[in-house]
């Protein structure tokens, strides 16, 4: 009868376990913190396609694919996901009863009339289980699950960061190569122009100031040429590092860069920013998970203020032996332990208050992160729109400069204009091309920044590559 009551008590306590003493408030608090930022009419879904494909650049596609497959920063982030999954599995295992095998053996001699040699042994399987009466262990498991989700968000952020760095550095490298080619051409024309002006100065048809001004312009262009050569080398080094290669191997990876033009992007659609995409950025997801994790921490500290109750049960065999004979048989036991805090001088209460303050802190950080995200997205969109207008004006400037060169060339061929005027027109067109190349690269960089500000998008290929574990 007593055994039945013990079993009923154990089952009742087990059924009562995992009842949390803390009511979760994270979800409602997060909605309230972003209520004025969220557009309820926005139903935009993040496309399941690699964001850089919109540039329609096969070389870029290959570089990003290679970087995402070999970059050590991504390997680190993926390893962090696997570590979080292992911790979660360990926490789930801790919620199950533990079973240990306990055994002992001994031999003793007793002196005297009744003395003699005695042997004893025992072998038992002992199970123990701490009841989660107040939901503390359940909250710990929820924290581990949130850690895993946070590691996935960090992995997504790293995917966005690495792919954006590759794209930005690639177009910087491409623009610097265009500038290098134009600069070499401009230096050659400046030298030819200087020879002509020096000859005219010897003939008395040009002034000393004309010579000095041309020499100054040539020196400036030569310095600019040297800087572009440095920029090309530095960009190569950066791309090599992103591709997990030592500096100096990039030219073998992507040959024939000289003469490759910068791509032209279609204008952006006149649509407002998607609040849903911005709030779904990896850093926003991470900030949201931090709030939920802080909420679970409050549940853990609250549960620690209440008594804990654990059950133990064992079954096995034991025996004793003497010179005259021996006995053995089955042994079993069942019991429970109660541990209740009595006097801790307010330590547990202080920990609860600290965790509640940490929850408020994470909530404020979520709001700050959201404001930064919306600001970055608005800035990126503004740069893109203004960059498109600037690019259009500079294209008009180049068209006008090219028309001038064509006009002066025809006049020179007709004998109505001299070669010096033609050289000046060609140099002006060269400078117009340089300005347009700079503007076009900035426009591409702004597009990359906008994709980054909206959190990027990836196909299932990369999700399976980094999330699937054995």
Tell me about this structure.
The chain is of the alpha+beta class and about 475 residues long. The chain has a single domain (about 20-95, about 135-305, about 350-465), classed as Outer membrane efflux proteins (OEP), CATH 1.20.1600. The protein is about 65% helix and about 10% strand. The protein has 12 helices and 4 strands. It has helices at about 1-15, 25-35, 60-70, 70-95, 135-205, 210-240, 250-255, 275-280, 280-305, 345-415, 420-455, 460-465, and strands spanning about 100-110, 115-130, 310-320, 325-340. It has a 4-stranded antiparallel β-sheet with strand order 1-2-3-4. Helix 2 packs parallel to helix 10 (about 345-415). The two termini are about 50 Å apart.
Summarize it.
The protein is α+β, with helices and mostly antiparallel strands and 470 residues long. 65% of the residues lie in helices and 12% in strands.
């Amino acid at each position: 009868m007593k055994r039945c009551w013990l079993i009923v008590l154990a089952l009742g306590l087990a059924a009562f376990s995992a009842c949390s003493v803390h009511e979760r408030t994270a979800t409602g608090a997060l909605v309230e913190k972003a209520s004025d930022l969220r557009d309820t009419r926005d139903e935009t879904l993040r496309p399941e396609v690699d964001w850089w494909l919109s540039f329609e650049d096969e070389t870029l596609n290959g570089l990003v694919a290679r970087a995402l497959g070999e970059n050590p920063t991504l390997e680190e982030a993926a390893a962090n996901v696997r570590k979080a999954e292992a911790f979660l599995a360990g926490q789930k295992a801790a919620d199950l009863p533990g079973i240990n095998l306990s055994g002992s053996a001994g031999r003793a001699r007793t002196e005297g009339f009744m003395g003699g040699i005695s042997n004893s042994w025992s072998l038992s399987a002992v199970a123990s289980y701490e009841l989660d009466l107040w939901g503390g262990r359940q909250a710990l498991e929820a924290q581990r699950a949130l850690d895993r989700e946070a590691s996935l968000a960090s992995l997504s952020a790293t995917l966005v960061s690495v792919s954006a760095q590759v794209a930005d550095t690639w177009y910087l490298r491409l623009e610097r190569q265009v500038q290098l080619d134009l600069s070499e051409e401009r230096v050659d024309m400046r030298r030819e122009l200087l020879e002509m002006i020096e000859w005219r100065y010897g003939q008395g048809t040009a002034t000393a100031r004309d010579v000095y001004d041309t020499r100054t312009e040539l020196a400036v262009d030569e310095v600019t040429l040297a800087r572009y050569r440095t920029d090309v080398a530095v960009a190569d080094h950066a791309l090599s590092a992103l591709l997990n290669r030592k500096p100096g191997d990039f030219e073998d990876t992507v040959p024939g860069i000289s003469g490759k033009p910068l791509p032209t992007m279609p204008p952006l659609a006149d649509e407002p920013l998607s609040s849903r995409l911005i709030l779904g950025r990896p850093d926003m997801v991470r900030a949201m998970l931090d709030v939920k994790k802080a909420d679970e921490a409050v549940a853990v500290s609250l549960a620690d203020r209440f008594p804990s109750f654990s059950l133990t049960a064992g079954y096995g065999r034991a025996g004793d032996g003497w010179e005259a004979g021996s006995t053995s048989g089955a042994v079993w036991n069942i019991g429970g332990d109660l541990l209740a805090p009595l006097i801790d001088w307010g330590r547990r209460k202080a920990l609860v208050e600290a965790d509640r303050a940490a929850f408020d802190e994470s909530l404020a950080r979520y709001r700050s992160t959201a404001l930064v995200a919306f600001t970055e997205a608005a800035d990126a969109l503004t740069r893109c729109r203004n960059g498109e207008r600037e690019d259009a004006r500079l294209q008009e400037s180049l068209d006008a400069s090219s028309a001038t060169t064509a006009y002066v060339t025809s006049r020179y061929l007709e004998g109505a204009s001299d070669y010096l005027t033609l050289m000046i027109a060609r140099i002006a067109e060269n400078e117009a091309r340089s300005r347009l190349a700079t503007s076009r690269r900035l426009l591409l960089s702004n597009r990359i920044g906008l994709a980054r500000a909206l959190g990027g998008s990836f196909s299932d290929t990369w999700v399976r590559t980094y999330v699937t574990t054995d």
